[in-house]
Amino acid sequence: MRKFINYLKESYAELTKKVSWPSWDKLQNSAVVVMVASVILALLILAIDFCIKHVMTFIYTL
User: Fold this and answer.
1) How many CA atoms lie within 13 A of 12 on its CB side?
2) Would you say the pTM of this structure is higher than 0.70?
3) Residue 14, SS3 per DSSP
4) Cα–Cα distances in Å, from 35 out to 18, 48, 50, 55, 60?
């Protein structure tokens, strides 16, 4: 139990004194980049799915 308590104390000290947290502006910019990238990836997958659907429909109607 003593090792666990020591681990918690060291983790807290590291998170409060050694970690450099991003500023609010940088955090917002990063969130916007992630959202835009997610939308682009979703649209790309939608386009690929649309193309594959039409190709498979064409093949099955032969």
Assistant:
1) 6
2) no
3) helix
4) 29, 20, 22, 30, 37
Give the model confidence (pLDDT) of 19-48 as tens digits.
999 999 999 999 999 999 999 999 999 999
**Radius of gyration for the alpha carbons in the chain, expressed in angstroms and rounded:** 24
CB 22 within 8 A of CB 30: yes
Token pair, residue 8, equals 């918690």
Q: Is the dihedral of CA 31, 33, 35, 38 positive or negative?
A: negative
CA atoms within 13 A on the CB side of 25: 0
The two three-digit tokens of residue 48, written as one number = 């690929």
Structure tokens of 22?
A: 């991003």
Measured over all CA atoms, what is the biggest interatomic distance in the chain, rounded to whole angstroms?
A: 72
